[in-house]
What does this fold into?
Amino acid sequence: MKFFDTDWSVVFRWLPVWDKLSFAARQHYLLAAPSHAQSVSADGYGADLSAGLASGLVEMVGSGRVKPTAASVPFRAVMAQLAKFPLFDQKPTAKFLEDYTRKHFTREESDRIQFAWNQPAWDSLAWPKAFLKSADAKVWERNFLTPFEMNGNTRPNWGWTPQPVVPPKKTWFPDAETVEAAKCLVGQAVETSRTIPLLSLPALLPERLRPVLETALKACLRYFLLYPALRPETLEAVIGVCPTLVYLASRPAAVPPAWAICDRLASPAFRMEDMIRVLMEAAAGDCRLNRTGYDRQFFKSVEDRFREDFVALPDWLVSRYDFASRLHIAGAWLIDLKFVQDTFQSRPKRLLLATPKGRKWLTQPPADRLHELLFAMTRDQPEGFDEDDESLSFGLEECQFAVKAPGDFDHRPWLESVWRQAAHPEVVGLNAFLDYHARVSNPLVNPVVPEPFRPHLAYRYGSSRSVLREENVEEYCRAILEQYFWARLVPLGCVETGVDAKGEVCFQLSPAGRYLFGLNPELAYGRPTAEAGLVVQPNFEIVFLAPNLNAEIDLAPFAERCGKNVGTLFRLTRRQIISAAARGIKAADVLGALAKHSQKPVPENVAEEIRTWFAGCRTLTLRRSMLIDAGDREVALRVRRLLGAECRALSETLLEWPKAQLDPKLRKKLAELGLFLESKTGKDTEL
It folds into this structure.
């Protein structure tokens, strides 16, 4: 132990004095200072200064300055540590307890307890009860002693860490009285399920066991049987069993989340908009990827274009969705839905190219596009599912449950039953909503989950499976609900979010969310796409009078983008037209697309120039042939008579055979006439 392996008799010596001090005086005594011997102003103790001086807790060191006495410095060190972790005054999450154990115990000590095989979980009620039931505490503790505690310096030193030189502690229970006192303390804490004032511990023991109080307390702390802390509101020193158990036993009854006041609400389906931007780039043939690696990294120039075009998010969402993750997930979902294909093996340049399915999705109205994403999400397993990538699925791959019955746990009934309860028109706080439903709507108590299919094992974020218990099931369920909120509902515009006056995130279901969970029969999202909102000008610029995504999709393959939203968005250039011709686009296709979306006829000079640019493009045919150098005119005539009309004379002595090679039979006939073929390298060609 890093801090608790100390002389606790000193702590109990000063606790009566500490109990008489006011909260302000206690706070001033623990005032952060470079060292425990640092002097502070005497004014901070107020009326308690005389009591502190009389008891010997502090001493005067100058005009108006006091500091802890040498005898009370160890007491102050322990109290300062207890004040850093208000174990019993906040919800004890797994991370909070992990930080606590890392601060107060060595890695070996905590690992031997937290990862012990065939032992109760260290943060469950079964853990202290197992100790109370043990017939021999020394035998019980052997499972949790570190190698040094058992063997001292006899273990090999591989040079990884310096080895301790102090004698080993063979046991934390040196005698039967210590074991009895420890069980008495743990039994009282388990029975009350509340915190106990540290000052009252001696009174909990029989008179004959009080001399071993400090030793028994140290053993209880070493094996995570008791946890000391200071209450932050009073700085009273208390002790209790695992904070998770105290929290579950002392919290009030669950109350539905209250309505919140939030003026600004937003529900951008930014994941769909991100996919649209990437897919438009893929449809234009400009979505280039690096050939190295398999993680689909875009060229920097392509990333820069996306960075400018991606939908801007409200302040309360920006920190959760950075550009890199948005781009990665947008590309992964497009691949998952087969809207694009990766040409990693088939082309010299690695590109994301739009598929016919993706082009069709782009041309749909916004509501239909979102409808298709929501439909794909609700399928049991998306087409083209890749478990190593971010997939568009209803359940989350990062958080999973295992059931006793054959098959997988079905997240859908549970998640739907929870989020349907957010259908009221009022806004609620996200944290309050998650806390409430993790407690009353988790799969172990939710009636919509059949008993055989209720989970008994869980894992999240790549961790090993953990047995679900009353002490940890709420934390797992809350993590899944929160992850689902940020990974599915917010990106697809299924909730309207905002922040209240305290900066807490609030939300309510949007029309898209009500449709997803079966509360609305139809999906209402976005405005219809304009059909005629652009003008082609004589200077070859294309001006959009209103946003028109379908027109942008049709024009992107042959026009050069120079803007977005409204105004001059595209420009017709010779370079872009030639690039389009190389991909098989015809002049009629370009003029047809312009006529389809333009409010006015295409100017004659523009149409004529487009036809001219296309007319200047030609497809040149390449073929392989064989040149035969006869040397003189007579030999050339003999070769042509033998090879026939296919052999064409380029000059009096140079002949062309229009194939990549000469048939062996013709080679043999030439040889019979004394005409031998020789390769360019000078070696005789085999017949």
